[in-house]
Amino acid sequence: MTFIKKTLASSIAIAATAAMATAAQAEISDGTVRIGYLADMSGTYRDLAGPGGLEALEMAIEDFGGSVDGAPIEVFSADDRNSADVGANTVREWVDQRNVDLVAGMVASSVTIAVTNVLEANDKLGIVSGSAASSITNEHCTPNHIHWVYDTYPLANGTARAVVEQGGDTWFMLTADYAFGHALEADVTKVVEENGGEVIGGVRHPFPTDDFSSYILQAQGSGAKIIGLANAGSDTVNAINTASQFGVVEAGQQLAGLLVFLNDVYAMGLDATQGLLLTTGWYWNMDDESREWAERYYERVGSMPTMVQAGIYSSTMHYLQAVQATGSDDTQTVREYMMKQPIHDFFARNGRIREDGRMVHDMYLARVKSPAESTHEWDLYEILTSIPAEEAYRPLSESQCDLVQN
Amino acid sequence: MTMIFGVPLAVFMGQLLLGLINGAFYALLSLGLAVIFGLLKIVNFAHGAMYMLGAFATLLGLRYLGINYWAALLLAPLAVGLFGMLIERVLLRRIGHLDHLYGLLLTFGLALIFEGSLINLFGVSGARYPTPESLAGGYQLGFMFLPKYRAWVLLAAVVVCFATWFIIERTRLGAYLRAGTENPALMQAFGVNVPLLVTLTYGFGVALAAFAGVLAAPLYPVSPTMGSNLLIVVFAVVVIGGMGSILGAVVTGLAMGLIEGLTKVYYPEAANTVIFLVMILVLLLRPTGLFGKEA
């Protein structure tokens, strides 16, 4: 009897789930959730997002179960080659021909700004994980994108403030000459000046640049105590390497890396980078939860994840949960639900999405370990303090975003 | 302090010296290109990749075989040069009778293959190669701090450039080479093995690129894209100097390093474009380049 009862009960349950699934599928446009991953897959920013980010995205989908209430999740990807043109055209094609629901990844800020315009015009959703420019949710905000991992505001706020407080009050800026560098330079200048310091000079170098010797020489000549690096990826790596060849630190000047990723530190080695202060949105060796995820990632990719790659997993999970909960892949329905749900996972602490599309969460001030302190090849940072979500990001009261009622 | 157009003299002098050092790289690389083009008429788009392979050979040699910098300075160009000779024998020779364009496309394809494979293996961040201990540190020149290693690069590049020019323009071997490309049939009739000469020349040009790669390894991160970033600039240098002109390649290489260095002081945003502006100007005024001969 019990056997029959059980069978009956489970058949009813299966039938009910199936019915619900059909109901949900009806809401998901053409029965499939389509995610396009757009990133630099071959250039300067490949290692911080690139193929590793795609792997993180696929991990999220697998962990989610591969489908949303029976609707399969399809992933496609493209290399934007750090070109705004290529990025915008790719996404236009994804919208027109592949009915994309979510565009994930997005690294170079110039590409992101171009792509979010396309998303807005077509009412599709984007989650930006790799880009840094704080203008993406400030003057360039749209109701169609969310900025997940970090931006230049907390980078400046964390690193620059800590450096000025330690007595580094005169700065020379080495700035990458495009949207991201300009945004970072502006944010840093503001923080330095607010804390009683002064930016006494700077140089805007072409992106990307291999040879920094000339710029380092100018920075040395300026006599500033701090050389602020408002660049990223291989540019930062090259600048730090060159500075070490020219004996910058020995001569009494200090470097402040404003956007330094885990893979950069790994590539340069601890000898060249030890003692460098940096702000990060996440670190793999932060706690048990992040370690557990990072080790699973390491098994698949062979290197430890950057904050961007971890953020891609976290944001994709949050998105899929929203699609499941609302039973829809409609941009505004999903975005609204995502904004209502607080985010607390292995990546984000005290996370929430604000009306300007900024996902604010706790950030961390870290110091690069010395070779003696490091216990194995990926043991690179010591987390000094955490910067609470509400302090880290630009307050809404200063926002220029149209979506914000000041 | 004395100022030159608003820049302190000390900084100005420092920039000139750095420009010259970068120019030495351009000179070495464009020299290899000029030798290959001048004698073989191959537009070698794989040159940047060969430079990159030289740097990688140095890095991997140290990491896995314990080959130190000084040995690598000899072994890496030798290995990459032999590899180049293999490519010449197996691939380039087969298209020698076709239009130059085919050689360009073939070598470009090869470059993409080398670069792509290494990106898959090593990523793009690159790895650091330690500066050899005997060349660590630097000299305080008063107007700037000159890292010893950069001084060495300038010296090594100038010596190698001069030696190459001397071999090609002033020795019997060089005379054979030049004659072999002018009139291969006649040279063959004199009993000179022209195909071997061609293979050796390609190998030598490639080895020059690899030599520059070894010199670059402690300066820049050793990464698969290091060659392609440089190649376009080097081509511009060769065009400005006059395709195939040995002297042109060396002199223009150094000069372009200087011009670029000065742009970095006065208008850094244009540093990546200034060489191409010069190229346009030169092509308008002297289509064969500064040192080029009328075809």
UniProtKB/TrEMBL annotation, chain A:
Keyword presence, Signal: yes
Sorted UniProt keywords: Signal
Domain named Leucine-binding protein: residues: 32-369
Keyword Signal: yes
Signal peptide: 1-26
Gene3D superfamilies, per database record: 3.40.50.2300
PANTHER family from the UniProt entry: LEUCINE-SPECIFIC-BINDING PROTEIN, PERIPLASMIC BINDING PROTEIN OF ABC TRANSPORTER FOR NATURAL AMINO ACIDS
Family of the protein in this entry: Belongs to the leucine-binding protein family.
Protein name in the entry: ABC transporter substrate-binding protein
Native source species: Billgrantia sulfidoxydans
Taxonomic lineage: Bacteria, Pseudomonadati, Pseudomonadota, Gammaproteobacteria, Oceanospirillales
UniProtKB/TrEMBL annotation, chain B:
Domain of life: Bacteria
Keyword terms: Amino-acid transport, Cell membrane, Membrane, Transmembrane, Transmembrane helix, Transport
Lineage: Bacteria, Pseudomonadati, Pseudomonadota, Gammaproteobacteria, Oceanospirillales
Compartments where found: Cell inner membrane
PANTHER family: ABC TRANSPORTER ATP-BINDING PROTEIN, BRANCHED-CHAIN AMINO ACID TRANSPORT SYSTEM PERMEASE PROTEIN LIVH
InterPro entries in the record: ABC_transp_permease, BCAA_transport_permease
Topology versus the membrane: Multi-pass membrane protein
Family statement drawn from the similarity comment of this UniProt entry: Belongs to the binding-protein-dependent transport system permease family. LivHM subfamily.
Pfam family, one: BPD_transp_2
Ranges annotated as spanning the membrane: 12-37, 72-92, 104-129, 149-168, 196-220, 232-259, 266-285
Listed CDD domains: TM_PBP1_LivH_like (cd06582)
Name of the protein described by the UniProt record: Branched-chain amino acid ABC transporter permease
